[in-house]
Amino acid sequence: METRRSKRGRREANPSSEEEEHVDTDTCRKKKISSPKLDFFDALPDDLVLSVLSNLSSAADSPSDLIAISLTCKRMKELGRNEAVLKKASRKAVSIRAEKWSEPAHRFLISCCDAGNIHACYFLGMIRFYCLGLRGSGAALMARAALGSHAAAAFSLAVVRFNGSGGPAASRNPRAGFVLAARAALLGHVDAIREVGHCFLDGHGAPACSSLGRRFLVNASARELLAGSSGSGSDPTWILEDRASDPDPVNGFIREWFGSASDADGLRMCSNGGCGRRETRKHEFRRCAACGRVNYCSRACQARHWSDGGHKDTCREVEADVDAWAPDGGDVGDVDGSHGGE
Ligand SMILES: [Zn+2]
Ligand SMILES: [Zn+2]
């Protein structure tokens, strides 16, 4: 412990130390006051910081980008939870991996949904519906996203209504499915455009009109070709939801979630690898009528798996009636469209 004498002795040995201390303190204070690094951020008004945070949030590549921002200081942590920031969070910013799923992650998505973020509504809606078995709240969140012109959400609801997912087979509603698919198609969703084409071809949920159906199928193929040839650099405004070039993160989440237990309880996954949907009751999905070895949640998935997934090379009876597609349960009155070859 330093005694008073030793302090006095030190002062006597260096009489100017006390004066220097004052000078140093004053200098530091002056530095603090004049330092632009320390004061510039504090002087910024909240609305300006929120504006910057919102822009960062809308361009974030992953949820960790948002977390990193909130960890910088207390003020950023508080402002990072602001509704304006959460509402603008990008699709990637709310796309949590299944292995990272936790109660805080769930709460984060709920906060984003409450703020009006349609990507979060769709993402959490799909998780609740397919992974957590919360059909009502999951469908409600998807509907909220669809009302906000989220094309993938509208198409997912269409698949739910076509299949009667979450209910008995009798709850299938092709008409409602067609209306939702048409809404998603108008928003540029390629799978939805293809689904609408099949509906017009065979009159499933829509008046039969083969010429109109073919136009939709050609339109879907053309968009895929253009998206594939243009690369990720260009961004035609009408290709909004092309899953071939930009896979939907929620499909990956569902696949990860079920993992090796995908076929447990006799409930099967959609055979299209990029889909991830799982049956909500036995025999919900339809099987390939030619080989009977693969199952699809929708004709759009069948078409993708036929061309992109290579099923056209592995299907045992390619030469058979490629337009036949029978449901597992033998409900031939509700047969969906073609075999996917266009
Ligand atoms: Zn599927
Ligand atoms: Zn097959």
UniProtKB/TrEMBL annotation:
Highest taxon of source: Eukaryota
Keywords: Metal-binding, Zinc, Zinc-finger
InterPro entries given in the database record: At2g35280_TPR_dom, At5g50450/At1g67340-like, F-box-like_dom_sf, F-box_dom, TPR-like_helical_dom_sf, Znf_MYND
GO molecular function, one term: zinc ion binding
Pfam families named among the record's database cross-references: F-box-like (PF12937), TPR_27 (PF23310), zf-MYND (PF01753)
Compositionally biased tracts (Basic residues): 1-10
Region (Disordered): 1-28
MYND-type domain location: 272-315
Protein's name in the database: F-box protein
